[in-house]
Design goal:
Largest sheet: 4 strands, parallel
Strand order of the largest sheet: 1-2-3-6
Distance between the termini: 52 Å
Number of helices: 12
C-alpha cells in the first residue's frame, strides 16, 4: 500500500472505505485493519507529516440501530453499545485506531454519523434509493398497486435521512472548521421524516395507486418477521432514564418479504420487460440490496437523530428529504437504472 501511495500527499483526508464481510467479527478485523494499514502507509511515505485533519465516515450503527430500538433522539454523547452480549462494531475499532494514531501525529480528526443515505454512485448498487426505485417501478408495471412493503408500525413512525451531497458538504465544512477538532457529529438532513408522508409522494411520482387499506390487502410473500437483539440498545441506559424492565426486543416486520418478492417469476418478468423496453442496465435488479431495503422499511421503532451539536458548532445545512429522494430517482433514470417516468 505504501508503494501505491508514494508521492500522494494532502492536508485533509476523507476516509469512507468499507468492505462487507460475513460476520461482525470479520467486519471488525478487516475494516479496522484497512484503516490502520492506510494510516501506517502514510507514515511510511511521509505523507502523514502534511496531514492536518482526517475525516472518518461511519454511521448510525454507532448507536446500535442494527440491533434494535436505541435511546432517542440519538446524540453524540450517548454511550457505545458494547459489552459481553453485544456483537463487535467496527465503527468503534476504527475510531479507536484513528484517535490513537492522532495522539502521536500532527493531525487531528472528525468522525461523522450519517444515516439511511440518499445518493447514487455509478456502479454502486448498495444504497437505499436504487432498491426502492426498482420496487416502485416494478410495482407500477405489475398492477399499479403501491403497497408499502415494510412495517405497518414504522409507516407512521419517524426516520432520519442523509442526502449524500449534504454529507459531502458537511465533511468539507468540518474539515476546515477549527472548532471541529477531535469531535464526532451526527449528519442528517434536518427534517425527521415519516413514510406516511413519503409513500404517497412516491405513488404520485410513479403514477401508481395506494390501496385504501394497504396493510389489509392480501399479498404473496407477506408477514415476514425477524427478531433483532434480545436486548435493544436502549436497555443499556434504561436504568438511568427510568425505563428498567420496560424495554422490548425490536423486530423487522415486512408486509412483503422483499428478498422473496425479488425472486418471484412475475416480478422478474416485469423487470425483464422494463429492461428491454428502456435499455436499462441489465444487472441493476440482481445487484439491488433487497435485504437492506427490507431492514430499513421494516423496523418497528423510530430512528430520530439529533443535529443539535452540529448546529451549536455553526452548521446550518439542510435538505428536504423528499427533494433529495426525488432528485436521486431522477439521476437513476438518467443512468438507465430506472425507467423514465413521463412528466407533464
Amino acid at each position: 500500500m505504501a508503494k501505491a501511495l508514494q508521492g500522494v500527499e494532502a492536508e485533509y483526508l476523507f476516509f469512507a472505505a468499507y468492505l462487507q464481510k460475513d460476520s461482525e467479527q470479520e467486519n471488525w478485523d478487516v475494516n479496522g485493519a484497512m484503516l490502520r494499514n492506510f494510516l501506517d502507509a502514510l507514515d511510511f511515505t511521509g505523507a502523514s507529516k502534511k496531514l492536518k485533519r482526517v475525516v472518518l465516515v461511519t454511521g448510525a450503527k454507532q448507536y446500535g440501530v442494527h440491533l434494535g430500538n436505541p435511546k432517542q433522539p440519538m446524540e453524540e454523547s450517548d454511550p457505545r453499545i458494547d459489552g459481553k452480549d453485544r456483537p463487535p462494531n467496527f465503527y468503534y475499532i476504527q475510531q479507536d485506531i484513528l484517535k490513537e494514531k492522532a495522539k502521536n501525529s500532527d493531525f487531528d480528526w472528525v468522525v461523522t454519523y450519517p444515516n439511511d443515505v440518499i445518493g447514487f454512485a455509478k456502479g454502486n448498487f448498495m444504497n437505499l434509493t436504487t432498491s426502492l426505485g426498482l420496487y416502485c417501478a416494478i410495482s407500477k408495471e405489475l398492477d399499479g398497486n403501491f403497497i408499502f412493503p415494510g412495517s405497518e408500525g414504522f409507516y407512521t413512525l419517524f426516520d432520519s435521512f442523509t442526502d449524500s451531497r449534504l454529507h459531502a458538504q458537511f465533511c468539507i465544512w468540518a474539515a476546515l472548521n477549527p472548532k471541529c477538532s477531535n469531535e464526532t457529529f451526527n449528519v442528517v438532513n434536518g427534517d425527521d421524516q415519516s413514510w406516511q408522508n413519503l409513500w404517497p409522494k412516491l405513488a404520485y411520482r410513479f403514477k401508481a395507486h395506494i390501496p385504501r387499506s394497504q396493510f389489509r390487502v392480501s399479498v404473496p410473500d407477506s408477514d415476514s418477521v425477524m427478531k433483532l437483539a434480545e436486548r435493544p440498545p436502549i436497555a443499556d441506559v434504561a436504568a438511568k432514564i427510568g425505563l428498567e424492565g420496560d424495554t422490548k426486543q425490536s423486530e423487522v416486520q415486512q408486509k412483503i418479504d422483499l428478498i422473496k418478492w425479488s425472486q418471484r417469476k412475475d416480478v422478474r418478468k416485469a423487470w425483464d420487460k422494463l429492461q428491454k423496453e428502456h435499455g436499462l442496465v441489465k444487472d441493476a435488479f440482481e445487484k439491488a440490496t433487497w435485504g437492506f431495503l427490507g431492514f430499513v422499511l421494516g423496523r418497528n421503532f423510530n430512528v430520530v437523530i439529533s443535529m443539535s451539536k452540529a448546529r451549536r458548532f455553526g452548521w446550518t445545512g439542510y435538505v428536504d428529504s423528499w427533494d433529495a429522494l426525488n432528485q436521486c430517482l431522477e439521476e437513476l433514470e438518467e443512468a438507465k437504472i430506472l425507467p423514465p417516468i413521463p412528466r407533464k
